[in-house]
Amino acid sequence: MTANKLLEVDGLKTEFKRDGGSITAVDGVNFHINKGEVLGLVGESGCGKSVTSLSIMRLLKDTPGKISGGAVRFEGSDLTKLKESDMRRIRGKDMAMIFQEPMTSLNPVLRIGKQLEEPIRLHLGYNRKKAREHAIQTLKLVGIPRAEELVDDYPHQLSGGMRQRVMIAMAMSCHPKLIIADEPTTALDVTIQAQILDLMRRLKEEKDMGMLLITHDLGVVAEMCDRVVVMYAGRVVEEASVKDLFEQPQHPYTKGLIRSVPKLRQNVRRLESISGNVPDLSRMPAGCKFAPRCPFVMEKCLSAEPDLVAVEGRTDRKSRCWLTQIDERGGETVHEYSAD
Amino acid sequence: MNTPLIEVKGLHKSFVVKKGFLGESKYVRAVDGISFAIRKGETFSLVGESGCGKSTTGRLVTRLLKPNEGEVWFNGQNISAYNDNQMRPVRKEMQMVFQDPYASLNPRMKVKDIVSEPLLIHTKMSSRERDKFATELLEVVGLSSYHAERHAHEFSGGQRQRIGIARALSVRPSLIVADEPVSALDVSIQSQVLNLLQDLQEEYGLTYLFISHDLSVVEHISDRIGVMYLGALVETAGKDALYDRPLHPYTQALLSSVPVADPSQKKERIILKGDIPSPVNPPSGCRFHTRCPSCMDICKQIQPVFQEVEPDHRVACHLYDETIMGKDGVHIN
């Protein structure tokens, strides 16, 4: 099992300096991605899902953020301990990233070909001519028509869907083992989203890559992912296979989230919703971070934060909620709250 | 049959994109000949992808934009040629809720002033009356009276959208045009706002023109729906007819593209080829022919007529044209 793990995030903690103090955007996040697997990272704005991905890629250098604890093991080696020069050898080669907004992540003054050739020449050591051929090949792989002509275009000459294909081509160009896709289709129209999801699914199958798919869209999760990690207020609150997550969500937040989404041909008159708002990271509630919005809140929830523990003794199924922990022991809680 | 509150007939709106030398200007035909009616008390939604003209239509209906051609009838009066003075009493009847709750509220104003500003223009209420009314409105939309003295930046996205809704409600309009009102919100907040909109509709007998790209949200909130593509309506129908029996190939593809939040459900997906063409240079004939999986020769030359093929179900597609397809027609699946 361990040998199969491509990426392992272990107790990751990322803090941001703000107004003299610091806030913890990601607080003790644990998950792993197996080879050839798509892991969904789900949550609402401000839950820390994007900061998690930037921490994995070590892209926080130009932000007030800093990894302050935990480890990110990629094929066994801890990325948080690597020198920047070593990290640069992995970034874009073994691990590549696809961002939400292709217009802001492509350089507007460089031709598509130039931008694609850069990582190819750096990581694969190709000369200019060979790199250009490889770039054209990769563009064809992601379904871009007239790739030979398009390499000489600038990003603004392409549509949103085409730009996202270029981003995917760039990520794919050096044969990565892991792709981190942060809301890759959120900026796209549905018919274009369908094209891009189809493409990503096909490429993943063909190249047998692992993928971390970050999204707020439960529909995308259901269609793309093998396993899912749900985040709330900087923490993992639930982990499950995609089937279990939708059929038997454990955490009240996951339940609320799934029920809040209107589904096609479901015909409910009223949607269920989660009352209140996501807590401010600088003014976090004391116990369970979801307690102020939770319909099942108990006294214990307000004072002590539950751990992320296995549900019904299963290793692939975890939830961070006192309810599941009480149910299991017939009223007895697993973790006792200590005074500090 | 209910009398329509809004009736739109053959509406056209173009914008200049490039002023050329010697008058060679280029135009985007943002809205190109659309007609629909909204009955009193119903929710009519316009769906479509970016650039299809749905927002422009909303602005034309509320006369924030003046149409180049065509008519907008509101409550039996043709308002398309009204000047600003004539429009003022009509504007009290139609209010808008915008997509971005961060951009549509003035950051320097207190919430009570934002909410009661329409009253300053449309009524003769004293400032004390307005303040009292504003606090009442805040409670109607699920905020508290103590929020009245605060500024917009102190609120979350969902709360700001509630403020925007309170402002729209202040003059007791009969029509609310809501342009992507929940698109900027997280799902758990989105359902709160959708429920609020439904409650308010029931309580005040409001009519909604709801503009959205999200087909699941549209299905939830609408009675009738119009699907737009490149500035034109391709299909209008009641909610059940549209979602159970979509006729236009574009509607079919659009519906099949929506990712379903249920991993046990595997569906046949129609994946459209290519991108949405530029509205500066729309394709000849049927605008959808470049991406249509059932494209015929005639589609490239002749624009299909928007016609009723079933009661209250209109579609603009040659596949349903009896004169072309013969009496039996062809029904694609």
From TrEMBL, chain A:
SMART domains: AAA (SM00382). SUPFAM superfamilies: P-loop containing nucleoside triphosphate hydrolases. It holds the Pfam family oligo_HPY. Its main location: membrane. One of its GO terms (biological process) is peptide transport. Belongs to the ABC transporter superfamily. It comes from the Bacteria. This is Peptide/nickel transport system ATP-binding protein. GO terms for molecular function: ATP binding; ATP hydrolysis activity. It is found in: Cell membrane. PROSITE patterns: ABC_TRANSPORTER_1, ABC_TRANSPORTER_2. GO terms for cellular component: plasma membrane. InterPro entries: AAA+_ATPase, ABC_Ni/Peptide_Import, ABC_transporter-like_ATP-bd, ABC_transporter-like_CS, Oligopep_ABC_C, P-loop_NTPase. Keywords: ATP-binding, Cell membrane, Membrane, Nucleotide-binding, Transport. Residues 7-258 form the ABC transporter domain. It is a peripheral membrane protein.
TrEMBL record, chain B:
One of its GO terms (biological process) is transmembrane transport. Keywords: ATP-binding, Nucleotide-binding, Transport. SMART domains: AAA (SM00382). The keyword ATP-binding applies. This is Peptide/nickel transport system ATP-binding protein/oligopeptide transport system ATP-binding protein. The keyword Repeat does not apply. It comes from Cohnella lupini. It comes from the Bacteria. One of its GO terms (molecular function) is ATP hydrolysis activity. SUPFAM superfamilies: P-loop containing nucleoside triphosphate hydrolases.
